[in-house]
Amino acid sequence: MNRRTFLETSALGLAAGTLTFSTGESWAALPLKAVKQPIGFQSYVLRKEISEDIEGTLKQMKAYGYQHVEMCSPSGYQKFAFAPLVKYSGRELKQIITDAGLACESCHFTLPEMRDNLDDRLDFARQMGLKYFVCSGGLASTTLDEVKAKCAEMNRIGEKIAKAGFTTGYHNHNVEFEKNFDGKVMYDVLMEELNPDFVKMQFQVAVATLGYKAADYFRRYPGRFISAHLQDYDPNDYKKEVVLGQGIVDWKDFFEASKKGGLKVVYVEMESNPGTLKDSVTYLKNL
Q1: pTM metric for this prediction
Q2: For residues 218 and 260, is the Cβ–Cβ distance under 8 A?
């Protein structure tokens, strides 16, 4: 078949809603990809590499197949190796990311800087062209009243962030699932107390090691989630992170439920084993 004949045949097939191959297989018969969201990585995992060579590190992640990077606020994360990035304005940092071929729609901010320096951080977010303004934690506490008070504060902050044109997210850690009040897991208290009009959630899949499945929460609280951090663990050793798909998480169920949860993007985050980043994105692209 010459090029012209191929193009004409392809166009006719697509117009009819199917494209037939020499084997008789059609597009309709091909398996659909499970992952509909863009695939990103969390910059915290590579904080040392980024602090030493941000351009080279981002370009390497792009070569692996990542589409997005979720940054950490340099001013809020100075003590976590992000101090070398403080010299960049939001516009300069965005340009570095864009030049590497990546997108950046989300950034982690600490609760203290959201409390004390929100206007400056909103200006940084505007310069970065962000959509999502994610609080990296801090709502957990020892009493139910304290948790409710912190949620009320987060609602007020989230309302101000919403008026500035961004969506606030809250990122959990294991602690929100380890603590409970009268039999109710702290995370469920957060879901009750946080106003979904002002605060969405970013789910940390690491709580699978405690017996909690992200998919269950996506189905229980539809539309409440903007993104997730992805981890997987050795079935024989929950302290050992492994390449996605080689561990305890049912990723097909995760991504099926993610549609109901509302996930817009996913971020691979292997804190203890960054060497899994390359094979993990390959797994997700082939799922």
Answers
A1: 0.88
A2: yes
Q: Tokens representing 79?
A: 């003590």
How far, in whole angstroms, is CA 88 from its chain's centroid? 23
CB 169 within 8 A of CB 133: yes
Q: Cβ neighbours of residue 63 under 8 Å, at least 6 residues apart?
A: none
- Pairwise CA distance, residues 181 & 143, whole Å: 8
Give the tens place of pLDDT for each residue, 80-89. 999 999 999 9
pLDDT for res 275: 81
Terminal-residue alpha carbon distance, the chain: 32
Which superfamily does CATH assign the domain made up of 33-286 to? Divalent-metal-dependent TIM barrel enzymes (3.20.20.150)
CA atoms within 13 A of residue 271's CA, in its CB half-sphere: 7
Q: Where are the domains of the chain?
A: 1-30, 33-286
Contact 20, 26 (CB under 8 A): yes
Determine contact, residues 185/230, Cβ cutoff 8 Å.
no
Where does the chain have alpha helices with state H? 3-15, 47-52, 54-64, 90-99, 111-116, 118-128, 144-163, 175-178, 186-193, 214-220, 251-261, 277-286
Q: What are phi and psi of 211, to 5 degrees?
A: 95, 10
Residues 149-194: tens digit of each pLDDT: 999 999 999 999 999 999 999 999 999 999 999 899 999 999 999 9
Whether residue 241 contacts residue 268, with contact meaning beta carbons closer than 8 Å, is answered with no
